[in-house]
Amino acid sequence: MSSDFRDNEERHRFELDVEGSTAFVSYRKTPDTITLVHTVVPPELGGKGVGSRLARATLDAVRAQGRKLIVECEFIRGYMSKHPEDNDLLA
């Protein structure tokens, strides 16, 4: 399964292309924080671990940008509850 992850700042979302479809996490940025608002995984990608791969890549991108994280998205909140090692990102 090939994939491509990017920060699409024009559309205010992190995107992961998989098998011709795009999963994404929408966000709002300030100079110091990023608020993760909503995650969308297309139905054809469901059950393949795409959401978890997107969440991992998103958290890594937030860390690389040096911002603190505000989580409004239920999916990301659930992912982080299973990965408390990322709680240092929280604002």
Automatic annotation (TrEMBL):
Signal peptide: none annotated. Residues 6-91 form the N-acetyltransferase domain. It comes from the Bacteria. Pfam families: Acetyltransf_CG. CDD domains: NAT_SF. InterPro entries: Acyl_CoA_acyltransferase, Gcn5-rel_NAT, GNAT_YJDJ. This is N-acetyltransferase domain-containing protein. The lineage of its organism: Bacteria, Pseudomonadati, Pseudomonadota, Alphaproteobacteria, Hyphomicrobiales.
